[in-house]
Design goal:
Blueprint (H helix, E strand, L loop, with lengths): L1 H20 L2 E9 L4 E2 L1 H7 L6 E13 L2 E2 L4 E7 L15 E7 L4 H15 L6 E7 L1 E6 L5 E6 L3 E6 L12 E2 L9 E12 L8 E3 L2 E10 L1
């Protein structure tokens, strides 16, 4: 019994930091107004012209933030930056952001969702112009890699699909820009629809068929 007890204690101690580190987890979706999976020739053609707008969204499968349970809730951010996001030669900050929080959340949960999104978005979500509650849906099809849908009331809509051979336009495509938020796994995808029609940013947008999305997971 004593010989078994000591290894079990070591296993528990080893796993404890992991359990503490992953207090919240779920699905992540992101779109940009520039291709993220592309060749340098296409990327250079877009830089300084587009790529300053983005939508980031998190669906919390389970977990807490600021000691508030957030299981099943979703939060999204629409962003307008000063330059192409990811361009190493330009400063996109300060950016403007509008947060859309799940209307199923109570007041404490909405505050926690706001704090969580700002933590995950960092400098990009520092300047929140408005927080809006809306019916939220973020569904990721884990059996069809890259397939996801976001509906944030009548403010934002995103639909994505996986990349295929028809998306290799110049033959040297790479993941040119990394995701805007920390993820445990993220893959580039095609944004079939990427639209925002809401307050706070001074601009609406709608694009179709760009290689401008990431679909993935997060854990903190």
């Amino acid at each position: 019994m004593g010989k078994l007890f000591f290894p079990m204690v070591l296993i528990i101690l080893a796993l404890s930091p992991l359990a503490l580190a992953e207090q919240i987890r779920g699905d992540y979706l992101e779109t940009r107004s520039a291709d993220v999976y592309t060749g340098s020739c296409f990327a250079n053609g877009e830089v300084n012209l587009v790529g300053n707008q983005a939508i980031l969204a998190w669906h919390i499968e389970s977990g807490t933030w600021n000691d508030v349970q957030l299981d099943g809730l979703t939060v999204a951010a629409a962003v307008r930056a000063r330059a192409t996001l990811g361009d190493p030669y330009a400063n996109p900050y300060p950016a403007q952001a509008v947060l859309i929080v799940d209307d199923q959340a109570n007041a404490r949960q909405r505050a926690a969702l706001t704090a969580f999104a700002q933590h995950m978005g960092g400098e990009l979500l520092r300047n929140v112009q408005q927080v809006v509650a809306a019916p939220m849906e973020l569904a990721v099809n884990h059996e069809r890699h890259g397939a996801a849908i976001l509906r944030a009331g009548n403010l934002a809509t995103v639909r994505t699909r996986s990349l295929n051979e028809g998306d290799h336009l110049c033959g040297n495509e790479v993941t040119f820009y990394p995701p805007l938020s920390e993820t445990t796994n993220a893959m580039p995808a095609v944004a079939l629809t990427d639209s925002y029609r809401g307050p706070g940013l001074g601009v609406d947008w709608e694009t179709h068929g760009k290689r401008s999305a990431f679909v993935g997971t997060f854990a903190r």
